Amino acid sequence: MNPIRLVGLTKEFRLGFSRRRSVAVNGLDLEIEQGEIFGFVGPNGAGKTTTIKILLGLIYPTSGTAWLLGREIGDVAVKSRVGFLPEAPYFYEYLTGEEFLRFYGQLFGFSGAALEKKIDELLEKVKLADARGLPLRKFSKGMLQRIGLAQALINDPQLVILDEPMSGLDPIGRRDVRDIILHLRDEGKTVFFSTHILPDVEMICDRVGILVKGHLRAVGAVHELVGAASVTAVEIVVDGLSEAGVAEAERLGGTVVRRGRQVLIRVGGEEKVPALLEMVTRHGGRLVSLVPHKCSLEDFFLKEVGASRA
User: Distance between CA atoms of 230 and 27, rounded to whole angstroms?
Assistant: First the structure.
């Protein structure tokens, strides 16, 4: 059973007085596997949030259908097994973190000692145990994201859907949210999240889907999409290289940038590296670093977006 399955999912909107047709999601076919972290990426306006709203029954598709945990999205009962954090959640700001989780737990039918234990566990998981008595209006952006994640987990869901969970967070907040998502996978949960922060996707996702203008342009593991060993450039930093060595590096096709005593040499591929290293030794230089640059998910993403616009 796939936690999420989409077949021919399409959503059209009618805009303005002219009722102009706008297609937000166009014939989307996608299957998410059990226990994986799936990154749903795309530029703003690609249709990511629209797709999530359809999955959760907040809006209806124009055509096509979808299943959550083996049941059609119209089945209300399946929602009790799904956790959700929207892109811009609104929380009643005068509740404390503890009261907020208790309210959502009661909505799912939890009470008594079992609920209090669950609240304690979630506050520890999202690193907010010390802020349990603090009103939400005093929470930072990162703290609100973490308490929102705790809310999404209060029912111990099998499937967790997060819409832009890292948006607006500082590096520490992003790291905390990444750690929580990885921990959810370790617990056997399936995580489906949308984002446009590509380094986070590349770091933690098992598979990625790239959505552009409502069309799914590519799906797969990051290494499958960008290539496992596609080195696009190599940067070499050398200390104490003579002027003759700098001139020879330029003749070998390298881009040379001086940094005081150090010289940065950038070449377009791996094949010139042996000759450059031999040259550095011959001209009395000392190798400081050698860094290969591979094609990244961002490079692949920009290529797909550019191809779509073209």
Answer: 32
Using a cut of 0.70, tell me whether the model's pTM lies above it: yes
| pLDDT score recorded for residue 230 | 65
In the numeric block, the tokens 């309210």 are attached to 103
Alpha helices in 19-76 (DSSP H): 48-55
Please give the structure tokens belonging to residue 172. 């520490």
Distance, CA of 197 to CA of 206 (rounded, Å): 16
* CA 45 vs CA 211, 234, 271: distances in Å: 10, 35, 41
208 Cα distance to chain centroid:
9
pLDDT at 265 over 70: yes
Q: From its phi and psi, is residue 213 left (phi > 0), alpha (psi between -120 and 50) or beta?
A: left
Report the Cα 55 to chain-centroid distance in Å.
Answer: 18
Hey, what are 126's tokens? 């999202």
Separation between Cα atoms, residue 84 and residue 2, nearest integer Å: 18
The amino acid present at 3, given as its one-letter code, is: P
- The rounded distance, in Å, linking the Cα atoms of 161 and 195 is 12
Residue 310: pLDDT band (50, 70, 90) is low
